[in-house]
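Hey, I'm writing a tutorial for new members on how sequence and structure tokens pair up, and I'd like a real worked example in the thread rather than a made-up one. If someone can provide the structure for the chain below, I'll link this post from the tutorial.
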Amino acid sequence: QVQLVESGGDLVQPGGSLRLSCAASGFTFSSYWMYWVRQAPGKGLEWVSSISPRLDTRYGNSVKGRFTASRDNAKNTLYLQLNNLRSEDTAVYYCAKDSKERIYSGWSPRFLRGQGTQVTVSS
């Protein structure tokens, strides 16, 4: 059974940092592109980042230069380092897996994702 479990969300002040984690199980983690997406209050899902099995990364314009995605294929874990946080980064953050092994499909709302972790940026 495929499972994705996010953790690490918290309340943080503007300018602060957080590190989110996503523990994956039930599939060959090292073979899949993985994604981070977020959903702000009252808004739709927004793609944040993609990371390939070989650690190539891509970012949305709103987070480029502030967020860094990484992964540890030996630990089946995905990470997102969030720096210089802003109030507009407040959202539930989800990790998701591509539907196809070793192929970059580009994120789709149809992809399996975890239950999410809440990040709140406020003073």
